[in-house]
Design a protein that fits this description.
Layout lengths: L4 E12 L2 E12 L3 E5 L6 H9 L6 E6 L2 E2 L10 E4 L11 H11 L4 H14 L15 H13 L5 E5 L7 H18 L2 E6 L2 H7 L2 E6 L2 E6 L1 H6 L4 H6 L4 E10 L3 E6 L4 E5 L10 E6 L5 E4 L8 E12 L3 E8 L2 E8 L12 E6 L5 E4 L4
Parallel strand pairs: 3-8, 3-9, 6-7, 7-8
Antiparallel strand pairs: 1-2, 1-4, 4-5, 9-10, 11-12, 11-14, 12-13, 14-20, 15-19, 16-17, 16-19, 17-18
Helix pairs in contact: 2-3, 2-4, 3-4
The structure holds adenosine-5'-triphosphate.
Amino acid sequence: MKKQIDVQLKNVQKRFQNQVVVKNFDLEIEQGEFISLLGPSGCGKTTTLNMIAGFLDPDEGELLIKGKRMNGVPPYKRELGMVFQTYSLFPHMTVGENIGYGLKLRKVSKQEQAERIQKVLELVKLPHVADRYPKQLSGGQRQRIAIARALIVEPSLLLLDEPLSNLDAKLREELRDELKRLHQEIGVTTIFVTHDQEEALSLSDRIVVMNYGNIEQIGTPYEIYNQPKSEFVHTFIGKTNRLPGVVSSIDNMHVHVRTENGLMIKATQSTGNWTVGQSVTAFIRPEKIKLTTQSEKDTSDNSVNGTLDIASFLGAFTECKVSVGSTLLDVRMQEKVWTGNGQDGETVTCSWSAEDVFLMAEGGK
Ligand code: ATP
């Protein structure tokens, strides 16, 4: 059964001083979905979120929340919860007063306020801080309180504008997991703005990748990572090796590409319609390349010898740069897979499957 559509943007456009910053934006968000708007700085993510929140009105197009047209409707009539980058808690109010503020405005009784404050504090795993002031909390705790404040009014839509970006790396990860747990527990439809690929991949049901106000692709994290529709999506969403070249031959199994630097690469045939002589770019993610010593036997579709230039140990994996003729390949090597001694200048073999080569025609599609 198809789920209810909570948010609909139909051909929405926004201009600032004649510059179109959000273009022909079409999106339907199902009830309970966690959607991320992902893209580089200035691509229009916050502008889109602010139109959904009601802080900005679209110049063209239509915005519907739960089937009702929202163009021109002020934010306080949209039943939203919103969390910003900066916690924006009132410093002179206790945590409890901060969280309960929305209920006070709605004239909820004092007893009900107290009960709901305690419940939501338990939800964000801070049941004991109601009487503290924001300055007596850590950054991560303050952001949890900002989330609690957004949730207490039981919004039909939760909007999060880079809520983790002011936190250090470890806290970010902790709060990311916390957000995931909260979403699974309460199931509120959520729109999350971020320029952090990992955050979007780990949290979202679907990701909307934006670039210069355009939607580049909408898909599940798996689709966005493994089946990108454009060079922009492929390169923005993770590290990759970019190898421009020309299709030199095609057989039943593979498209053979000769790169500008003279490497011969096999890609799976099923990836598109290719013709001999066509200019293409082959992309291979660093983690898809296996690094072995030359003495090991290798039966991969693609296998080239090179020299290990740099190996940087980063804990869970080692990032390597391997020179293959005049091509420099980035390789991400998981610990223990490697059997060599990992010394700079060592002769190595890089191998990868034809299925892991992502081919794109010139022009990016
Ligand atoms: P960031 O990740 O840096 O927050 P973003 O993707 O959220 O970026 P927006 O804040 O939506 O991007 O901005 C999109 C474009 O619109 C940018 O070029 C920005 O300079 C411009 N812009 C945003 N707000 C205004 C405004 N009030 N007046 C004029 N231009 C604006």
